[in-house]
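Sequence in, structure out. Go.
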Amino acid sequence: MRRLLSMLLWIPLIGCGGGGGTGGGGAAPTPTVTNITINGPEGPYLVGGRYNFTATVTLSNGQTQAASGTWGGDAPTVGTMSSGVFAGVSPGEVTIWIDVTQGGRGTRRMRVYPSYNATWVGSYRLTSCTDSGQIRSQGRFCRDNFANGDILPLGLFMSQNGLTVTTTVYVGQLEFEQATSTMAEDGRLQVNAHYENEDGLLIDAVLQLFQPQTTSVGGTITQTWTAQGYTGSGWLTGDLVDVVKQAGAGAAPMAAPGRSLEEMLEAVKRSD
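Output:
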């Protein structure tokens, strides 16, 4: 009987002892990285620009903390990434990344745009000239002044803020009004420039520009020349040739091709 009673009293003590053991202070699991965010300017990112980035990790316990690690990129010809500093090299797309010491890799896809912010001087090669009305019959616009293959002077003074570019076009001795344009996704730029003088000469020029290299601008130019009070027009097209960046030089009027526009208009007036 005493033995049975001892067994009955001993059984609950085993149960109590086991429960106390499971409530002991075991080590909590180490939080893991659930997300990596690369923080920095939203762009646009320009050739020649330098931009600072940092990284933040989100942990499985909901906390966030600054991340450290190794930075890099997959297209060094477009942009380089080192110690959190990104430098634009040439137009294109690049993915930057950081391998964080807490574990894992964060990435960010970016596009680098051209920088047109400079003075560019060169010329364009005439590819066609057509004229009509009095501009043709009396001013002899194409016949006396322009032939396919002629090399004509061109200057561009350009200032850029993000993707917005303000351009002053110089054709020969003529300075066009400032024109403001927005760069396209592929880095190309259309400039619509206008010239008008007190004698009623009007020129509308459209330039389609791109940057084959950081030191040169390529593209095409079209010009429509008219004179108030006279019929017809002159229409020129050309391809940009050797338009290159000038170091520290302002765009200046250049020698006019053949007769100046003023002289052409005077020829039309004299023929009336």
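Check: The helical segments are 2-22, 133-137, 141-145, 261-270. Residues 36 and 57 are 5 Å apart (CA to CA).
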